[in-house]
Model the fold of this input.
Amino acid sequence: MGRSGPGRIIALVVSLGITLAVTAILYYWFRESAVLGSDFMSTMEPASDNADTIQDVYILIFWLAGAVFVGVLALTLAFSLMFKEQEGVEAVQTHGNSRLEILWTFIPVIIVVIMAVPTFDAIVQTEGDAPEGAHEVTAIGHQWWFEFEYPEEGIVTATDLHLQVGRPVQVSLLSDDVIHSFWVPRLMGKKDMMPGHENQLWFTPTETGVFLGQCAEFCGLSHAKMRFRVIVHSPEDYAAWVESAQAAAAEPEDELAQRGLEIFSSPAAQCMACHTIEGVSSGDIGPNLTQVGSRSTLAGGWLDNTPENMADWIADPASVKPGSLMPDTGLSDEDIQAVVAYLQTLQ
Done:
C-alpha cells in the first residue's frame, strides 16, 4: 500500500521541488559551455538566417527534453517515497492498466510529432536552393587545410573565408583526397565534402565578425588540427579586401625580405613547386600564399600567424602537424628568417 491522499500530495510536491532544484543547478553549472569566445565554437548564438532556423529547432527540442527529464525524474522520486516498503504491509499487486498504457504511448507520439514538424520544415528551408544572386564560393578540403575559390572575383585563398554581411552565399563543397566535413556552428550545420562528389550549402550572414570553423569528419592523423575562420565584412570592407586580394604581390623593400623572395624563388627551396603567389609562382599543391601575411592563422588554422610560429612551421612541419605533405626544406635558420620576413610582407 502507498501513502494516504495528503501524504501523496506532499511526496509529489517535495519530489518536484527537488527535481527542479537539481535541474536548475545543472543548467547553471553547464551554461558556460554556451558562452562564446575566441576559442569556442557554439550554435547558441546563430549569426545567419539558416543557423537561426536550426537554433529554433534546438530550442524546441531542449525544452521538450527538459520537460520529459523533469517529469520522469519527479515521478520516479515521488513513487519511491509513496510506495516504499513498509513493515507488515503487503503491496497491492496489479496486472496492467489499459488507460496508463494508452497514455504513455500517446504522449511520446505527440512529443515526436511536435519535434518532427519543425525539423522537416527547417530541412526544407536550409537544404533548398540559394536565393537569386547568391555569392558563389567553392570550398575544397585537403589533408589538413581548407582552400577557398571565389569564381566571381578570380581569387583563391586558404584558411580564411571572406564573406559579405547580408548577402546570401552558396558554398560548393569538394574534397581533394578523403572525406571531410565543413562546419561553422554559428553560420550553418555540418555537411560532408566527398571525393568525386559535389555537395552544397547556403546561408546569409546576418552580422559581421570572425566565426570559427573546422573539419567535423575524422580525416587522418591531423584531423583535429584542420580548422578555418569565416570573416564576415561590411560591403565596403569586403570590396576593399577583394581589391587587395586581386592585386599582385608587391616587391619587398626591406633587404631581408628581398633575400627571402630570392630563397623562395630558388628551386632548391621547393617553395614555388607547391605554392602560388600572384606574380611570383604558380604551384598548386599547397595553400595560396598571396595574402599569407594578412591571415590570422597558419598551418591550416592551427597556429596564430606570428613570425615565430611561421618560422617553426617552415623549419619542422611534421612536428607541428603530423602527416603534413609540407616537406622539410632543409633551409638554415638564417634563410628561414629571410623567407618569413618576405611572407609577412604579403598583405
Notes: The chain has three domains: 5-84+98-127, 135-245, 255-343. The CA atoms of residues 37 and 212 lie 10 Å apart. The chain has nine helices and 14 strands. Residues 5-84+98-127 form one domain.
